[in-house]
Amino acid sequence: MNTLLLFISVAFFCIFIRLFYLQILNYPYYKNLSDVNSLRLIPERAPRGIITDRNGEILATNRPTYSLFMIPAEVEAGPTLDRLGLILDVPVSSLELLLESRKESRKFEPIRLQAHLDDNLIARIEENRVHLPGVYIQMEPERYYPHGDFASHILGYIGESSEDDLTRLKDEGYNEGDWVGKKGVERTYDNILRGENGGVQVEVDASGVQRRTLAYKDPIQGQTLMLTIDYKVQKLAEDMMGDNVGAILVTNPKTGEILAMVSKPNFDPNLFVSGISFDAWNKLIKDKTFPLENRAIQGQYPPGSIFKLVTALAALEDHVIDTNKVFLCRGIFWYKTWPYRCWRTSGHGWVNLSTAIIQSCDIFFYQLGLLVKIDKIYEVAEKMGLGNKTGVDLDSEVAGLVPNPQWKESTQHQPWFPGNTIQMSIGQGYLLTTPLQMLDMTSAIAMNGTIYKPHLLYQVVDQKTGRSVYNQQPEVLRDADLDPTDLKFIQSTMEKVISNDMGTGKKARIPGVRVAGKTGTSENPHGDNHAWFTAYAPAEDPRIAVIVLVENGGEGGVVSAPIAQRLMQQALGLEVTPWQVPTPGPTPEEKPTPVMGVAP
Predict the structure, then answer these.
(1) Which residues of the chain, if any, have pLDDT below 50?
(2) Contact at 8 Å (CB) between 268 and 144?
């Protein structure tokens, strides 16, 4: 009996020691396990910040929607997934894979199964709630673009974070399932717009059914982003572009503020807010007009005769001619055995630099380019920002291409021929630019060589107080360091392109306003010519700069100049001339010289 009593005493002592170890020494550990099993933290997504134009017109906001979530730890494969697959009309195998991927790690973190639930689906889920442990419905803010495809390449779109996003933003506190900006200002200013998520802590029973709410943290909405865009100017630009393919940009050359940026065709960012369907995505990426491409900063085109301004400045800076120098245009120019033609087949006769710009004489610039040489043309083009990104606050901008002999030797493995210089002198050949780059070039001329960095951010406004917490200031991108006398000559001549009855840009005239501009028609090897026009106004005190590119549009002075005229009227607060579909008429206009080979 003594031995038995001793044995029982030792046994109870061991049990006591074990209980002391579990309940006293290891209390925090097991308390945490208990909480994990009985407590759930259900995150609540913060509404994204509102995006407006410079005058407060709402371009992107939020609206409530219902989403379906699943907590992997509380869902078992079998009847639950079978029933869920039947309700959602999705393969059970896909739900099983999703469940399996979270069984070992983050199994208590909710997974969003479907967003934007309709009333019928909500009713079916609620009817089956008792058979769906670990599955719940939650109201969330959903991104909404009230104007549909309006300014879609500026705004961009959002989507659920991918592995690439999480890698890119690993230091920003993003988690799987968070919504992030994928394109446009939604991506550039995601850290301002995203806000701070909140959540609710609830207690659940052994079946995963919520019993009570323990704590709640309010989500904090992101800041309001006010853009430099003017809704009225942007709307007019989109309407005037219509179904054409191309790009339009309107800026303030004194600040770099972008008042309008249009790329057509465009897309509806609302397609992406709930997760774009495979069919819709496939349609977008297979569209041969590339609606997802922002042609204003990603489209690369020969600039055509607008580039003649660069050739002219290079010649004046190099002192190879003065403004009185004349060349003879007979409609065709022979370099050795190679013919290069002017858009006016009968020729312009004897013309000086001013007349050559006003009437856009190709043959004058063929001869001028050979006189200046390619290195000087390349130098001035670089000084004016061509071949370099502008640094605009959007993703995926391209740099374009300003070729030179070194580039051709390294990429084409051929020497630079005089014919290459002839073609580049009128904005053809290997030369490629974006519309925004060419508008920066126009702004450089308007602002006596100073180029301000183009930007879309105007202000950041605190969503609680309504007060501005940040104002974007103008930033000088570069100084082209051009001779003031040469610039004044070019500025004066660009005015005559509009005001002179023989000028190719006279369709951009605005009564009572001095307008300076240049037309361009660039050769397109894949179809009809591209129609360019760029201008600024008022010429004596530039407040507006504009560029219009219509792909396959034909003649810039006929098609693009009237669009620019109306945009300048709108931006300057003037009465807008009623729109008429432009038709080719007797107005002289430059046409690209057919590429007949490159003279050795």
Answers:
(1) 583-590, 592-600
(2) no
